[in-house]
Structure prediction request, 183 residues.
Amino acid sequence: MLMFGIVLSSGAMKSVLYTSGTVWSALLAYFLLKKKLNWLQITGMIVVVVGLYCKGYKSFEEMKKADGAAGGMNQLLGALIIIAGTVLHSLTNVVNQKLLTAVVQEEITEIVVDEATGAEREVGTGKFRERKVEKIEPESLCHIIGFWSLLAYVLYVCLFCAKDGYFTTLTYYAVLDGKGLYA
Prediction:
């Protein structure tokens, strides 16, 4: 998605918009993993968003003037595709974090000695603590991600790149010949 967005907008626009990845990762972790954000993180996210707006708006206006109205719409579409790709990449980071660690709640116990017999036993206190445990080995996760990435790439090549016995890219059909997608 990112590369397709670059074709429609520009590499400079991708560089600007892709820096929002940390904001998307933090927001997705907050909503999906219930991670807490402190005031400093929230302030940093606001600064990044305001900076992205200022730079992105200026870049978009400059490209719109240079390319005309149709070029501006391509720039906007490209920017939206880049943002979608950035959000999906951030989602990958959050899913990896979820797969690599899990939080287990366990009850805190105390060892109590029975005065009559001298035997020790554990008694629950009613208090709980969280303990992080590995849910999946990092090497296994790399294999899983590699497999699905390879599968996605093969599907992309088979579905979008083969036309009339030739391999080309989706961007050729969408942009260079001017007839729209799958022309």
